[in-house]
## 1
Amino acid sequence: MKTFASITLADALELQAHLLEVAAADGDDRVAICVVDARGWQLSAATMDGVDPTTVGFALAKAATAVYSRRDTVCLRHAQNDAGRWLLEHNPSWSQHDITVASAVCPTFCAWAGGVVVLSPHDGIVVGGIGVSGRSELADHQLASQRPPGWSQ
């Protein structure tokens, strides 16, 4: 029988709590945060006070897209410079046609930055995803990439 590696509800709640704490402390715009398992199914979601209700839907779509595509969603639209910094420039490896096809196949596909994969510390496989929405795309990505102390990724 094949085993299925995924983050747990406890993991999701720990990640969510940490990101809410970081978001509240950094003074930037308020956000919605969604954490999904390795199938892209929602485990937890939270919105900070005053966040538009639709923002949580974007956070869920970003998290699920990261899991389905097995990469951070920032990679779908943005290029990286030699120093590893994300740029507002378009990533030439994903064309508008690719994004349109992916959206047709998976209606919840979201190519906006802010969806980040959660990798297993043991073998590097995708075990979940985090979506953040409410700030600029690159700020959403930066927040979603934060991990609590003790997390390896």
## 2
Amino acid sequence: MDIRLNLVELSQDSHGLGGGTVTVTNETRNDRFMLDLLPSLVMLERLLGYYFQEASWAYFYIQEPDFMSRWEKFKAEELQSSVFMSTISVLIAIAIRHMPTTHTILTELVDGVDETRDELSVRYYEASYVIVPSPRLASQTDGMDMIELLLAR
């Protein structure tokens, strides 16, 4: 799998939202760069499961059967979409935000990391802006994925 994306630099105060700046350069990074921003595939699977079981009622924009079908294609390296990866990042941020601080997934995720649940959630939310900082950077074939990403954000 080799996804290409424009590399962005976020100013420290931006947090991906207003008040900061996003600079798009001509450099590209492959999917390894993007995957390094996220937990392991096993942990992603668990976090997405938690999202659809416990948090999707409040964020009903993403339909589980369709999303999980694309997730299976992504894991099998049949789907190459930075927009989909960015959506995953937002969904796991939402899942983490809704988890009790004592949940086993969360305790495993923060083990050895000096971050609170909320800081971890913000980090993964911000990663979605590093992966796909602007709708203009998505390909034409990412239409529905982009709509889901924007609704989830």
